[in-house]
Amino acid sequence: MKNTAWLLGVAGLLPFVGIPLLATTNTIDWYLAAKGFVSYSAVILSFLGGIHWYDAICGNRSKHQIYVAMLPSILGWLCLAFIPQLMALGLLSVGFLLIMLYDKQVLTLPKDKVVWYTKLRMTLTTVVVLSHGWMIFSLN
């Protein structure tokens, strides 16, 4: 399962790296690039709340965890529906950082999964946040 998670995680980075690259090389329109990037980012951020939903319903440590599990989806939706794309890029980037920090503080994983999951999340989140910065820099 560990190798599959890494493979899928890295594959999931393709839009985060590919869209800014295509936009920077003028292969796609900036508006479409920003819209596509924000949309993908919102979907992936929403996905990250799922592990906390599962952890909470399994009766683990934190009583607020089930509520926090919903925040990535709400932030993603707000960024898609109401927030200008440049601001949305910044907010989504912060969302990825905050949910990763929350993972480290609250998530209860079996001991055999803690090290590799933490390394996976740190690696993926670093690339995702840097890609958001790339998009923000490119749009200015």
TrEMBL record:
State the superkingdom: Bacteria
Q: Note one Pfam family from the annotation.
A: DUF3429
Transmembrane portions of the chain: 6-25, 37-54, 74-102, 114-137
Q: Which UniProt keywords apply?
A: Membrane, Transmembrane, Transmembrane helix
Does this UniProt record's set of keywords contain Plastid? no
Under the heading PANTHER family, the entry gives: TRANSMEMBRANE PROTEIN 69 (PTHR15887)
What name goes with this protein?
A: DUF3429 domain-containing protein
The organism is Alteromonas sediminis
